[in-house]
User: Fold this.
Amino acid sequence: LEKMLQNAIDRSTRYNRKFAVLFIDFDNFKPFNDRYGHAEGDKVLISHAQVIREHLRKSDTIGRYGGDEFIVILYNASRKYAEKVANRILNSIAKSRYREVTVSIGVSVYPEDGENVEDLIRSADAACYKAKKFGGQRVDFA
Assistant:
């Protein structure tokens, strides 16, 4: 995933384009896992990943970053476009089969919010943390 982010930085620098990083963290996942077990938790991960994928273009990238964290790279994307995609993901997951496990999404945009892989992830993660701090199931920006 980090290598793909570096490739996105290289391409965006070369062609003077922006791209966005979505840091997606599941809300209420641990209580769900504790209540229903890891097998059901795995089904939530798979189901939510499919919902996220449905809102991406073929050129975009999704990858699992941690236990219940995903990173999405939206190539050639403005802040406004990233917000639209993030809100679509948020709303679709809220209506999904496993709607009790919602998501919080933090967004960073290259180059404004970071000029290297670490800064872009850190900025998107901090925005996601802010979204969770304000109750989750929302989108926040770096």
About this structure: The longest helix spans residues 38-54. The longest strand covers residues 19-26. Residues 13 and 101 are 37 Å apart (CA to CA).
